[in-house]
From TrEMBL:
Residues 1-52 are annotated as: Disordered. Residues 53-156 form the BTB domain. SMART domains: BTB. The lineage of its organism: Eukaryota, Metazoa, Chordata, Craniata, Vertebrata. This is Potassium channel tetramerization domain containing 2. InterPro entries: BTB/POZ_dom, SKP1/BTB/POZ_sf, T1-type_BTB. GO terms for biological process: proteasome-mediated ubiquitin-dependent protein catabolic process; protein homooligomerization. GO terms for molecular function: cullin family protein binding; protein-containing complex binding.
Length: 257
């Protein structure tokens, strides 16, 4: 076929052949269109680790990978300083893979890292909160230290209180006294059960049935199992309320459980 004729001022349809003896540098690349930014430097995989978004940690022989943003969640923490101050002053070397060497227990580092990720302390049953507290203090994560201390204190209070216990009392009363006795109960006493004992006394033309009233109260004012009862004067003052407008007939003794 006949060679195509190229006119001056028109771009060539085929690239020109390079001269082997030409040592001149290639022409610079044309500028990018508006709104398009040219890539600066090598790809992310070839960049130095100090400028990478991801950080590799070797904690006690176990590798963890996280972002700099996560590790810098606590600005004054050891991990934040490790990412921002890559130098010998922190006393942390790198292994052959470029991971930071940290001589700590990797079992407890998982909850530490997860806390920095989402702000919640999640522990497996086999992990002790005291162990997490030690690691949080080492990494200088102040908010996590406060959180773990509060949880330990709550668990200690819950253990010292133990299961809820109750004290029961059985009161013998007449039918006309039931309403007043139940309405005047105080100091945490609650009505539990009413038992008819099947006997009656004759008051003129009316018979008054006898009942056993069972009441209970939680031992929420106890410390280590030692019950702190109200004073005798307070007891007398409370039960005297139940005696107001009662029948002059002698009452039977109160029964206690």
């Amino acid at each position: 076929p006949a060679p195509t004729e190229e006119r001056p001022g028109q771009p060539s349809s085929s690239p020109p052949h390079a001269d082997p003896g030409d040592t001149r540098l290639p022409p610079p690349a044309p500028p990018c269109p508006p709104g398009v930014q040219a890539a600066a430097g090598p790809p992310a995989a070839d960049r130095p680790s100090t400028g990478s978004k991801w950080v590799r940690l070797n904690v006690g022989g176990t590798y963890f990978v996280s972002t700099r943003q996560t590790l810098c969640r606590e600005p004054k923490s050891f991990l934040c300083r490790l990412c921002c101050q890559d130098g010998p002053e922190l006393g942390s070397d790198k292994d052959e893979t470029g991971a930071y060497l940290i001589d700590r227990d990797p079992t407890y580092f998982g909850p530490i890292l997860n806390y920095l990720r989402h702000g919640k302390l999640i522990l497996n049953k086999e992990l002790a909160e005291e162990g997490v507290l030690e690691e949080a203090e080492f990494y200088n994560i102040a908010s996590l230290v406060r959180l773990v201390k509060e949880r330990i204190r709550d668990n200690e209070n819950r253990t010292s209180q133990g299961p809820v216990k109750h004290v029961y009392r059985v009161l013998q009363c007449q039918e006309e006294e039931l309403t007043q006795m139940v309405s005047t109960m105080s100091d945490g006493w609650k009505f539990e059960q009413l038992i008819s004992i099947g006997s009656s006394y004759n008051y003129g033309n009316e018979d008054q049935a006898e009942f056993l009233c069972v009441v209970s109260r939680e031992l929420n004012n106890s410390t280590n199992g030692i019950v702190i009862e109200p004073s005798e004067k307070a007891k007398v003052r409370h039960w005297r309320k139940c005696m107001i407008h009662s029948s002059p007939v002698p009452r039977k003794n109160q029964l206690s459980l």
